[in-house]
Design a protein that fits this description.
- Two copies of one chain form a homodimer.
- The first copy, chain A, is α+β, with helices and mostly antiparallel strands and 95 residues long.
- The first copy, chain A, has a single domain, classed as Transcriptional coactivator/pterin dehydratase (Gyrase A, domain 2, 2-Layer Sandwich).
- Chain A has three helices and four strands.
- The first copy, chain A, is globular.
- Chain A binds chain B through residues 37-38, 41, 44-45, 48, 51-52, 57-64, and chain B through 37-38, 41, 44-45, 48, 51-52, 57-64.
């Protein structure tokens, strides 16, 4: 697992939907919106199970129907393919 | 359900453990720490089920084993007994 340069990360982000590279190039971020809290937390639960299996955990903030998610790979000090993989899973889970 | 004054909120906070009144007096906050992500998200799941049943939802941020929780009652524009009740549940859920 190696660190993606900002240029490599931008290319990798074409595989997912609506994720942006943070200004410092060290993480990717997306805000998900759902119909209500039940849907938002259902999404979080699906992502949590996947994240724990990958041993790759998000930073996330939830209020009611909104989930702000940040992904970074501490082992490489920036963005890696693990983040892209979890981002793609989150996109699918959001439906 | 009525809004608690900062003085009333401080008295009510004696019923729970480790919660503080925000500087503006409009919310209560606590940071929970667990052994790992699995424990942290297990806690969040228990609180989420209770919150949805109460129709009273937290604002919360999670990274790995840490959960920062903020409770406020939008209907009264500040802290109410609903926040104290959910805070007490969260304390129990954290064990």
């Amino acid at each position: 697992m190696s660190k993606l340069s900002p240029a490599e990360a931008e290319i990798a982000l074409k595989e997912v939907s609506g994720w942006i590279l943070a200004g410092d190039g060290l993480s990717i971020q997306k805000t998900f919106k759902f119909g209500d809290f039940n849907e938002a937390f259902g999404f979080m639960t699906r992502v949590a199970l996947k994240a724990d299996k990958m041993d790759h955990h998000p930073e996330w903030f939830n209020v009611y129907n909104k989930v702000e998610m940040t992904l970074t790979t501490h082992d490489v000090g920036g963005v890696s393919q693990k983040d892209i993989k979890l981002a793609a899973f989150a996109d699918d889970a959001a439906g």
